[in-house]
Each structure stands twice: as structure tokens, then as C-alpha cells.
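Quick one, T. Sequence first:
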Amino acid sequence: MTRFSIPALLLAVIVPAFPATKRDAAREAPIRQFVADFNSARNNYDPAALARLYAEDAEYIPFAQAPIRGREIIKGAWCASPCHADRIIRNIRFIHSDAAIVQIAVHFSKEKATLDYNDTLLVVRKSRRWQILVQETAMPPNEFRVVLAAQSGEGITH
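C-alpha cells:
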């Protein structure tokens, strides 16, 4: 797996973004479409389409749990639960011409349960195609109980 330095990633996330220009909008457009494709595949319960959006050696870190490594294993993780999520991109930060950090606000709902959390993606462009190299799903510590309840199948309203 391609490794990026932690200080560089932190700097890219912490340093405030400059106002978007037309050039920035054009540069971000493929990533915005990529996130829309991810959202569509997730909401349509299409694990095969989701898997294609991950790099072969991708890592998915769900809610501070152990990382899930590898496209096929990640695909299996996405199969289990029909649900709906709305994703809003908060920030796209290019750390290289072929790598960006994408911060996304997610509103998840399933039956009577709802949950708001954040996804952070490290996306890389390989062979002219954007792919998720690392995905981390996180939320404030006081909201962690909601995730545990949702994973156990309990009805939680938020």
C-alpha cells in the first residue's frame, strides 16, 4: 500500500482551505462525482459497485474499530445492511496531484434509527481513475454508544 506521512496528512486536514477558484472547482469535480457514485452504490445496496471504488490494498476503519484491509474483504463488510445515507462533502484537500483527503458529513438512516458521523477518505488516482486508499468513519466519543446500539440491531433514535 502507498504510505503517506502522518504529519503531511494532518497538515492537509488542519490547515484552512483557501477560497475555491474555478480551477479548484474543475480539479474537484471528478472527486465530487466519485463521492456521488459511492453514495449511489451504497444507497442501492450494490457491494460490487462499492468494491470497484476501493484500491486493491485499501483500508476501511469503521468507528475506531480494527481496520478492514483489502477490496474483497471491504466488499463483504458492505453487504450486510440496507440503509440510506446522505453525504455532503465538507472539504477536498489535495496533498498531491494524484492524492486528496476528502472530508464528508454523513447522515445515516435505517428504519427508525438515524446517525450523523464523518467519513474521511484518502483517495488516489491510479490509471486515470480515483480510488479509496483509506476510509475512516468517526464520530464524537459521546455518540459512540449510538453506533454500538445500531450495530447490535437495537432501535435508536437520534
